[in-house]
Fold this protein.
Amino acid sequence: MHGVNLDQIGRRDPEHYGGITFRQLEQAIDGFAGELGLDARFFQTNSEGEFVEHLHRVRDVADAIVMNAGAWSHYSRAIGDALAFAGLPCVEVHLSNVMAREEWRRVSVLEDGCIATIMGKGVDGYREALQALKAELEG
Ligand code: DQA
């Protein structure tokens, strides 16, 4: 699940997010999932309400969640509540190292609902997230 402004990577802040486009990011994630024998489904929106509504129904279409909620990660208690409601294992991913950026990015209101947070590893962070979720699902 990709949140707000993630659809614009490739065009925004290349020093933080690299030059990869959103389409290339999803293709890379799809490839990582395939290598691990997982089936990836994608969802991106810039609307917080749509993101929450997807979390309300995600249990019907997925066993686990990889989430980069963008800036919402730092303040949206509504998404945190919806993630708890979803009740699926989740790994939070950030392409950039949010701990080395502005103060407000160092807070995650989603981390309590996640089994792990991966940051600063670019696209490879998504591979790590999928590996962690696969291990979690396999017990
Ligand atoms: C981000 C980091 C967030 O602070 C930022 O608002 C984003 C992207 C990342 O992937 O590094 O939109 O989640």
